[in-house]
Amino acid sequence: MSEPIKPVGDFAQLDTDRVRRRGYPEAIYCEGKTVEQVRAIAQAVDSDHVTLFTRLNDEQATAIMRELPGAFYDPLARLIAFPAEAPEPSGVSVLVVCAGTSDLPVAREAMHTARYLGRSVSLIADVGVAGIHRLLAHEEELQSAGVIVVVAGMDGALPSVVGGLVSAPVVAVPTSVGYGAGAGGIAPLLTMLNSCAPGVGVVNIDNGYGAGHLAAQIAAR
Amino acid sequence: MSEPIKPVGDFAQLDTDRVRRRGYPEAIYCEGKTVEQVRAIAQAVDSDHVTLFTRLNDEQATAIMRELPGAFYDPLARLIAFPAEAPEPSGVSVLVVCAGTSDLPVAREAMHTARYLGRSVSLIADVGVAGIHRLLAHEEELQSAGVIVVVAGMDGALPSVVGGLVSAPVVAVPTSVGYGAGAGGIAPLLTMLNSCAPGVGVVNIDNGYGAGHLAAQIAAR
Amino acid sequence: MSEPIKPVGDFAQLDTDRVRRRGYPEAIYCEGKTVEQVRAIAQAVDSDHVTLFTRLNDEQATAIMRELPGAFYDPLARLIAFPAEAPEPSGVSVLVVCAGTSDLPVAREAMHTARYLGRSVSLIADVGVAGIHRLLAHEEELQSAGVIVVVAGMDGALPSVVGGLVSAPVVAVPTSVGYGAGAGGIAPLLTMLNSCAPGVGVVNIDNGYGAGHLAAQIAAR
Amino acid sequence: MSEPIKPVGDFAQLDTDRVRRRGYPEAIYCEGKTVEQVRAIAQAVDSDHVTLFTRLNDEQATAIMRELPGAFYDPLARLIAFPAEAPEPSGVSVLVVCAGTSDLPVAREAMHTARYLGRSVSLIADVGVAGIHRLLAHEEELQSAGVIVVVAGMDGALPSVVGGLVSAPVVAVPTSVGYGAGAGGIAPLLTMLNSCAPGVGVVNIDNGYGAGHLAAQIAAR
Amino acid sequence: MSEPIKPVGDFAQLDTDRVRRRGYPEAIYCEGKTVEQVRAIAQAVDSDHVTLFTRLNDEQATAIMRELPGAFYDPLARLIAFPAEAPEPSGVSVLVVCAGTSDLPVAREAMHTARYLGRSVSLIADVGVAGIHRLLAHEEELQSAGVIVVVAGMDGALPSVVGGLVSAPVVAVPTSVGYGAGAGGIAPLLTMLNSCAPGVGVVNIDNGYGAGHLAAQIAAR
Amino acid sequence: MSEPIKPVGDFAQLDTDRVRRRGYPEAIYCEGKTVEQVRAIAQAVDSDHVTLFTRLNDEQATAIMRELPGAFYDPLARLIAFPAEAPEPSGVSVLVVCAGTSDLPVAREAMHTARYLGRSVSLIADVGVAGIHRLLAHEEELQSAGVIVVVAGMDGALPSVVGGLVSAPVVAVPTSVGYGAGAGGIAPLLTMLNSCAPGVGVVNIDNGYGAGHLAAQIAAR
Amino acid sequence: MSEPIKPVGDFAQLDTDRVRRRGYPEAIYCEGKTVEQVRAIAQAVDSDHVTLFTRLNDEQATAIMRELPGAFYDPLARLIAFPAEAPEPSGVSVLVVCAGTSDLPVAREAMHTARYLGRSVSLIADVGVAGIHRLLAHEEELQSAGVIVVVAGMDGALPSVVGGLVSAPVVAVPTSVGYGAGAGGIAPLLTMLNSCAPGVGVVNIDNGYGAGHLAAQIAAR
Amino acid sequence: MSEPIKPVGDFAQLDTDRVRRRGYPEAIYCEGKTVEQVRAIAQAVDSDHVTLFTRLNDEQATAIMRELPGAFYDPLARLIAFPAEAPEPSGVSVLVVCAGTSDLPVAREAMHTARYLGRSVSLIADVGVAGIHRLLAHEEELQSAGVIVVVAGMDGALPSVVGGLVSAPVVAVPTSVGYGAGAGGIAPLLTMLNSCAPGVGVVNIDNGYGAGHLAAQIAAR
């Protein structure tokens, strides 16, 4: 029986009890951590369950891949998963939809997260509302999904339209794609919080990990 | 030949030269004016061209209607037009579209303004994007309009969808309908400024008059 | 077979197709509507499925209860449901938790909404994090819930703590309870979006209806 | 007859139907795209109609010019047009006016956009309101334009003055020129939204492309 | 010889030394004070030098006029001056200019303040920049003023234009006239702080008293 | 031995364990509670230790005074204490200083709170920094205090000056006194957070209760 | 007799009429201009009156100094003046006071500007309010100045204290020195706008040039 | 007897009187100072009492260590103390608690500051509320501390929970750890200001120095 808390140096306490308590392992958010701290944590993880490293810069990723060769690494999504093999999928399916090409990094972080937490996933890219027929061409796929993660920057209008088409819950992720008034993702965040379609739960700007995690929990059965 | 500036008391200078210079008469924005000031201005207007009184409260409206019996008054839009008869329409048509029932006062202010500045106008209400098929049922009407004014609160997503369907320019009006984060119209304003469909010009929150005026200028030929 | 859109006067188009398309009926958001508009809509609803009227003021509520005697009315939650009998519950259970007494109106709006959309619901009140043992006394109840709606104003810290204790998804609702910096619900909204526990989906400030709706969708099986 | 949607890799879906539907081709917004993505899109465009690449950095521009030699490239405006020859101008004229030298990049993006969408264009630079006589010296030119795009940073006062002088519609573009309170273009954006002259439609900060597009639509006949 | 500090009840300490130290008497800002507190202060003032009571509500004004009959009271400016007779004017002249009729209350508060602090004053109303020729008609009067106070709401563009025409310093006062984005005076405040004409000093929104005081100091010789 | 949690109706759970755990009783924050809820809580309190009711409106205060005759009530501070007799003071002294007359309600809420939590208290009013000598006249009193609570609106500059004069910790309370830019207390809040004198801890705007509580804890020995 | 407007390339129009109209020459704000543009302007200036180049980066400064050898250059203030000799001082004296060492660049930009516009200037550094006696040691110097420019970041409290000590007008300049809440100068800007001492005119954050210009105008006689 | 103010060059005036007046020496905030200025100050300090240099960049630190060999330097906390030996601890103990690994730099700046101002200190790291049992495992240590400094980014919920567990005062430090909505520390700042547990005093974002200073003052006896 493992200890519920595993100290790493004097700077971190891994919450190893989390799998038992919540059913999902802890992820390591790497922004603001030094390369040394990240490496020490990589040395401390074991392969009993999947560990995700998120928001990696190049140097951190290199250090981790050296400690954990064979891990899965998606540079676009800035995410490493160890071990590389995802669990056998269970629950209902998670569909990730994103408005523009520039939203792909966040969309893929969400998709990988849900996959490594045990769900079957798929992705539709570049179906923004300015060409609404591109989205409507996928109406069936949308209506058969168990949970839908919608990722959008700029006007952030996509979750309102998707939410209005389906019975599944929608997890909305604003991205920092855009500029000018409401830049940094504030504009799509506000749009999503004010969605005129009910059934939309919002996570923080660019928080693909959080969206994938929530989707995985919702899709669990 | 009239003087270019007509003083009213010591508090206002009517820009009577404006019709000659800009082709459109001045409107009287009544918010922040006393009933006495509004009445004095009503006494000073003549029937050579249409005068609009906007953002009226009940007391101001009563005072004006007493000075200008026979004027047109729409209490929902808080607008009075004198004389009541609109000019013969010219130019291309102006279509006003609004997302929800609560956006109607602003939508009607825009419609009346465009009509009294000499355009033919029509209105489609309650076609928000959460039920996208309600909007698409009007696709032909949208595509045949000369200019479209889109009025929306909450998520403000309607102009992006409409803008993506048509070749006509879109004038977008955010309304203060909504609550919580981005309340007071900030959320739809930001959405509209970040519209992923180009061809959308935005006016201030609840500024139906400004939208109708701009639409009338665009629709002039 | 009913028409997908049912016009009410010239100001509203009821989206009656919504039950078929989304599985849940439309609700009538009453803020910003006139008493006459609300009454006309009340006359147009039928008892085939439940209709919710939300954000009612006293005058609107009185008008509706006159049209729909026997409807369920909770003045604290400012909500009317017609017909009064909720559907037989299905899916997993929805637990609503609120931090303080002042958050109760929003918590009850969420609870009623989930109940009328077909879920079994329960409520725990006044368990803010400043007396953490009050919350921990309910740990088992929290861990057996299917979905948890957490309602909090002020510091909005409750969802982070609850989210860290359970495997179920958490729907977080910031309320406008509080004052000073971040008043109007901005402080708890930001706290919830930045929750250090993943698995938290946020809805707009005071949006009990949206939270209950999302919870009902998540809890559906 | 071409397909309405043309996929590029698994990251983009070109909306080739847009010319038919809206009358104007799609532009490629390059910020946030990788050089590889931009190059792949450049390989996919054809010369049937003009394609604009906007918000280019140097590396992206070099990659595109290698794929599309002979394209028009304005480094100051960060814009590439392919093919280089603009359509024969139609409709009324578009006049671009900018307040200061630092607003020129945005002003030129607007001018090129309108030109490549088929309008005749001209540009007046450095006529800010602090030396009002510089602007008034151009009064005739202003009054004969079909549409005026006004570009300004700092106090953003220019559209109010221009709008008050002419009957043509004004498209106002705030720029991020300035510093301190309201930096990043917020100050001129708010000024323009609050313009005391009606007939001003505002686009997002630094959005020269959007302004040029809207102006081209307005100037079409 | 008077005491430098004169206590009123246990809630106020009149800074009677201020005339000696700064050359100008203290004013009583009445917002947030109870009627009883205001009355007690009125009883404590003497007629050695002028005392101004600013931001009065009706009830406070009535209470003061009862204590200080013969005082000067301007209800529009919400200001009382005691004694009513202003000092013999000295220094150069102060010209107050306001953009719209709704800015008059603030403009008059500024004018009265400067007058009671010993300057000669005059006022030009309703010369907003949307009809620039109305302003230019006063160019000579502007250029001969010693100090100019410019009062404007909405777009707040007037000080930039005035500042560019004259050699005198300009004191700019944003007003809370306006609505929508940047309401409450934020829009004109930012405009004025970003004025492209140097030589503009800004005071707080609606702060006519502060503007008049600063102008009086500048105009002192 | 009492239960750690005492339920009141189904809407509140009094944290009676708090005295044992923290050493200080719970206070009842009354804003947002109905008169019925407040009355029910008043019925549930006992006289074993002091209970504070804060942010009372008139109706709530009347209801409580009827249930708890003999309680201490300060309408200006909107606070009731029961029982009325404060504990014998212990620890070092708490000095409350406020900048203006309008800050008195908050200052008195802080003073009463500290007194009822067992400290000796005193108050200096109307010593804002615009007349710095008024403050310096109290330099000795400031330097002999154990803890100083500084209450200020407007520019909020007082804590920086006081903090620079003394060795005691300073608790700073911004108030919502003021108007225009940074209104509602944002301006003094930011000033206090950016105090150039270290040793200043800030509480929320108008939070006299919180300031008094923190001061009482600091002054405990 | 010179032309009132002197074009430079197709990107700038020097307002050479400005000396006649306003009494002060135009300055060249260099942020956002290319090195080529700045060089071309340097080639166009003559030595009839002083030209200031402000907000220079190193590369721009080098280019100008090559065109105008012998010009005055202060790298800390990022300012070049040509010709180097300042006019004979006239009017009353300008005193610049700054709160901290980090505010010096802005303070020196203000001082140089006033000097080159014809005033006698002096500077007191590092007299922030956290050590109020440092400031009071200069009380006489403060009281004999004709105009005082007060430069401060962080809490921005200095102008309130200075303004309360003197009869001269105060020009307040917030700086971007500071961090955290209200960073970028917002905190001191709000403090200064809310100064409890009247007689304070505020310019934009870090706008030393604007402050020096305004001070020079005020100090002119 | 030393002079109360010690000038360094013409850019700084060391407040050497501060130890006598406040009991604590001045610290040198190095952000925004040039390396030359920092070196000159390092040359001017003596070893009579401890001097802290805070917010150092690498170059500044190197320069100081060359002037003051043997000083204490913590690169993570960006702090140098000279002389390196801290005073003998007095007063009650200061406990620093931080939520995540990324908050460590600020936590250590607070800890060092309190230690060099004469207190005994200890540190608990990585006990965020998402794993509440990690915190509760330290309940005894928390309850025996004299003062607790709580450092947290993201949701900033930790001070509310800690404050609710103890009788000691809590100094809360928001950090800029986090992203998206409320980034830069705004989210945890607002959370802490709205803490539902009284007894929490907040300092500016990332202000470890200020927190340590305040804690040292509170813990003095």
UniProtKB/TrEMBL annotation, chains A, B, C, D, E, F, G, H:
Q: Which SUPFAM superfamilies match?
A: N5-CAIR mutase (phosphoribosylaminoimidazole carboxylase, PurE)
Q: Where is the PurE domain?
A: 92-221
Q: Which InterPro entries match?
A: P2CMN_synthase_LarB, PurE_dom
Q: Which Gene3D superfamilies match?
A: 3.40.50.1970
NCBIfam families per UniProt: LarB
State what protein this is by name.
Nickel pincer cofactor biosynthesis protein LarB
Species in which this protein is naturally found: Corynebacterium breve
Gene name of the record: larB
